[in-house]
Protein: LVIVD repeat protein
Organism: Dyadobacter fermentans
Amino acid sequence: MVKAESPRALEQPGKMYVKGKYLYVNEIKKGIHIIDNGNPASPKFVTFINIPGNGDIAVRDNILYADSFSDLVSLDITDPAAPKEVGRVKNVFKNGLFDGGGWSLNESVGAINDQNVEWETETITVNCEENVSPGWWWGGIIAFADRAFLSNSSSAAPQSSGSNGQAGSMARFALDRNFLYAVGQSQMHLFNISKPAQPVDFATINLGWGIETIFPYDNKLFIGSATGMFIYDNTNPAEPKQLSMFQHGRACDPVVVHENIAYVTLRTGTACAGAQNQLDLVDVSNPSAPQLIKSYQMENPHGLSVDFPTLFLCEGKHGLKVFDVTDKFTVDRKLLAHFKDMHAYDVISLGKTLLLIGEDGFYQYDSSNPKDLRLLSKIPVGKAI
């Protein structure tokens, strides 16, 4: 049921993604808006891609990846006005709603479950040799399996990668070399995208319950969960290896990283049932043993983005806060600005431009002076541009 439709107004915006001059804004569980942002002061809706059950977005070159209930779909967006489905991995997200629903407090979305069982009976004729040692037989199978595994691992090793876009801190999709990573509520799915239009279900890693976000950085994967932050070594992108877990009290938490510091937000008022509203700075210089630097109390922190030394932090209905994080021990005393006239869910810093999304719409700012953000444009909910 994936198809291109006429542009429509924002109704319930969710995740956002940017690549080149185009913005991709998720309409929670309905699809993706493609917006021409060649002129940030005057963005224009190009098309709406109807993708039932969609929650996340990633773009490599001219291929867009999106979840659709239990499936992963790939679309050719060479012509943004006429995107076309070119690939689909069926029934890979087994519960039919890999992200657990949307982020709106008032939203209630049920999962779709599908079971399609086919039974086959086959008779096989074998020639059993009485004098063959069972040990040799099993050894041969194991040796064959080992060779097959090594061959598969070798062929999966990426040689090159295309041009990726940029996601916000709330993303459940991440791209690294020839792989797309999708974190569900308890698992990380690896898709081989060496042939970008035809993703292949490659592997699944069990992470534990309450997984929420993924942030790739410096050959590592930083994964936010309801109880902490996982760090995976991604030197071999076909086989991520867990290095550590930084634990905190139960709370929803996205994470972003700059150099040796991870910035983690924890908030209440969600399905995570947390009791903390704070920003944690974590030393990840030794990724096998992350250490808390300091915690700072916040109002209701959501997504965040770092353009060092500036940290942009979304506070939900309390707006957007801008901090100078040069001194990691005095962040609370270096509040540069607090913009209270919007709902702030997630943010992406693009140097001199800042993208922000919330329940009331999509905002763009000139952020060349972080103390005085200048509004370039706004796409309010309920209005098509």
